Amino acid sequence: MKTKLVTALLGAGVLASLAACGGGDGGGSTSATGAEASCSVPVTHPDAPQVTVWAWYPNMESVVKNFNEANTDVQVCWSNAGQGADEYNKFQTAVSAGTGAPDVIMLEGDTVPVFAIQEALVDLTEHGADEVKGNFSEGAWKDVSSGDAVYAIPVDGGPMAMMYRKDIFDKYGIAVPTTWDEYRAAAEKLKAAGGPLFGDFPSNIPAPTVALMEQAGATPWQYSASDKTKLKIDLDSEPAKKVLDYWGGLVSDGLVGTQDQFTTEYISGVVNGDYATYISAAWAPGYLTGAGAGEGADKGTWAVAPLPQWDPANPVSVNWGGSTFAVTSQAKDKALAAKVAKGLYADDASLEQGAKDQVIFPLNQTVLGADWFVNNQTEFFSGQTANKDVYIPAANAYKGSTYSPYSTSFYAEFTKQITAMNNGEKTGSQAADDLQKAMVEYGKQQGFTVQE
C-alpha cells in the first residue's frame, strides 16, 4: 500500500526535485532527528534540545520567538521549506528517502491523510493529544483524526460564508440570500437588471465545492486509520449531484462566471465589481486585502453573511482550508516534537498577532471566546463584527470532515470534471458519475478495498 501510494503521488506530478536544505556554512544545530539544520530564528536557550520545524505562515518568526522564550526544556529550529505544494514535494521526497524530514511540519488539513497513510506521521494520542483536545471544536478535532488516531494539532481553519458587495446589492435592490434557492433567485434578478455576475464557479479550486457537497448532506469519503485498506467513496450521491447540478445550472444560465480563482484576472474582477458575491472562508478578507481588494473605490463595499443553506431549518456549517502541525515519523524524540506541535502557535500573543488582520482564523477556543476577537470590527467589512455574527458560529457548528487519502489525484480529477461542466460538455450529475468511477478505479489501483 505504502509503495503504491508513493508511486501514485509521483505519477500525479506532486513531487518536484528536492533542493538541498538545512545546514549552511553558518553552522547547524542538532535537531531531534539528529540532522544538521539551519535555524531561521536564533534559539533563545542554546543548551536545550531542538526540534526542527517546517512552516510557512508570515508571522512564524514571531511565533517561534514566543515559543522559544517561554520554553527552557525545548527550542524550535524553524525554517521555511516553501508554502503548500512546494513544502509537500520536499516532504514527500524525504518520506520516500527515509531521511531529511523535519521533526514537526505544517500541513493543510486535507493533506494530513495523504502522509498519514504512508506512516509518515505520528499518532499523537500516544503523546498527550488529549491534553489540548478541549481547546478545539468537535469539527476541528475530527479534521485531524482518523478513527482513534490523531495525526495533527489544529492551528487555523476556514469556516465558510458568503461575502457580498453592498454597493451592488443596494443598487439593484438585492436582499441578502439565506438559502440557495434565494441565491439563484437573486442571481436571476441581477442578470435581468443588467447587473454583473452573481458569483463564480471555478474549476481550479475544487475544495470549496466538496465542502458545499457536504453541506447538502454528502459524505464523499469514509476512511479510518484503524484499517488502512478499506475506503468508502460516495461522490455520486443524491446530495453531491444536487450541488453539481445546481452550480452547473447557474453557469449554463449565465448567472455566475467560471474564472479560475487565485489569479490576477479573478482579483481584478473582484476589485472591479464583476461579481456580487464571493463564496469563501474566514481567511478570505486577509487574502483579498493582500491582493489589493478593499482599497480605493473598492473600499467599504464588502459585507459578509452566513453561508446560504439548503434547509434553513437544519443549517449546516462547512469548512474550507486551514493548517495544522504534525509530528513526522522521522523525529528522533517524538515526545519532545509533540510538545512543540501542541504548543507552537498556541500562545495568546501568537494567536492574536495571526488573527488581528484576519490573516488566519484561529481555531483555539481561547481566541474564539476572547472579547478582542469576538467583537473585532473588521476593517475590510466596514466595521462589521464578522467574527461574532458569522465566522465564530460557523466554526463552532462545524462537525468535521473526512478527507481523501489521495487528495491531489482527487482534486486533479475533480478539476477535469468541473471544467467539462463549465464547457457545457456534461451535466453536474454526469460529472459526479464520472468522478465516482474514476476515483473508485484509482483507489483499487492503489490497493484499497473500495466500497461504493
Detailed description of the structure:
There is one protein chain. The chain is of the alpha/beta class and 452 residues long. It has two domains: 2-157 and 321-397, Periplasmic binding protein-like II (D-Maltodextrin-Binding Protein, domain 2); 160-318 and 406-451, D-Maltodextrin-Binding Protein, domain 2 (3-Layer(aba) Sandwich), CATH 3.40.190. The protein contains 19 helices and 17 strands. It has helices spanning 2-11, 60-70, 85-97, 112-116, 130-133, 138-143, 166-172, 180-192, 207-215, 238-252, 264-271, 284-290, 334-343, 348-355, 365-368, 371-374, 386-397, 407-422, 428-445; strands at 29-30, 36-37, 50-54, 75-79, 104-108, 145-146, 149-150, 153-154, 160-165, 199-200, 221-224, 227-233, 256-257, 277-281, 302-306, 323-327, 449-451. The strands form six sheets. A five-stranded mixed beta sheet has the order 4-3-5-16-8. Strands 14-9-15 form a three-stranded antiparallel beta sheet. Helix 9 (207-215) crosses helix 10 (238-252), helix 10 crosses helix 19 and helix 18 (407-422) packs antiparallel against helix 19. The longest helix is centred in the last third of the chain and has 18 residues, at 428-445. It starts with a helix and ends with a strand. The model is unreliable at 1-36 (pLDDT under 50).
